[in-house]
Design brief:
With 220 residues, this protein is of the alpha+beta class. 59% of the residues lie in helices and 15% in strands.
């Protein structure tokens, strides 16, 4: 007699074999699901590590862009945003810029006579007083790790640079609560099409000429 569809060669009912197939299929699905869970768990763990690496890289980038003592931009950090953000904006808005170069006159004397701790306090004061004279969108940069600072200001042709210089000089003079900080200042104006470092060099030369004249006037 021929086998019917309801019975296999081993004599098991189709319902039993169907149940066995379903169990096997279910186990297979569970195995696949377990594998995928392991894969996604591993993926998330790897991404978590990657996210931590990215966070550390961003933190290192931030640290390398700012002066650790004063919190002001350092030269590297400022030049990066100058090229990526500031100059394109000046070009769009057809603005010029003002560079003020400032050099602390008596930092070495403070370090030698009062110690580097007091010298560091004077540097911090220098930056804080400079910031008090700036507008939104202006920048103060610790140009070197010593006593040279740069102020960058977007500028309109009808503005008077002497108004800024007067504010800075007044801030550096101090008052009854703050001692005077001796600072030599020079400035130069430029446009977005100018080579920035050449404008800085002009301001630097004016600053050193002002320093020389003041020393000469003081008999130093």
């Amino acid at each position: 007699m021929e086998n019917t569809d309801s019975q296999k060669s081993e004599g098991r009912p189709a319902s039993v074999e169907s149940s066995s197939n379903n169990d096997s299929f279910s186990e297979t699905l569970q195995g696949i699901e377990k594998d995928r869970r392991e894969y996604y768990r591993s993926f998330l763990e790897q991404n978590k590590d990657l996210e931590n690496i990215i966070d550390k890289m961003i933190e290192l980038e931030k640290e390398s862009s700012f002066d650790s003592l004063t919190g002001a931009f350092n030269q590297r950090g400022f030049m990066m945003i100058l090229q990526k953000n500031i100059m394109p904006r000046l070009k769009r808005e057809n603005l010029s810029f003002l560079v003020v170069f400032a050099d602390m006159d008596n930092l070495k004397n403070i370090n030698d006579t009062q110690g580097h701790g007091e010298g560091n306090k004077a540097i911090i004061q220098m930056v804080e007083r400079t910031k008090s004279c700036l507008r939104k969108g202006d920048f103060v940069v610790r140009w070197t790790r010593g006593d040279e600072f740069l102020v960058f200001m977007p500028w309109k042709p009808n503005e008077d640079p002497n108004s800024v210089i007067n504010r800075l000089n007044s801030a550096y003079q101090g008052d009854e609560n703050n001692q005077k900080i001796g600072v030599s200042i020079g400035y130069a104006q430029g446009r977005h099409s100018d080579k920035f470092l050449e404008v800085v060099e002009k301001a630097d030369k004016v600053m050193y000429e002002n320093k020389r004249q003041r020393k000469q006037n003081n008999g130093e």
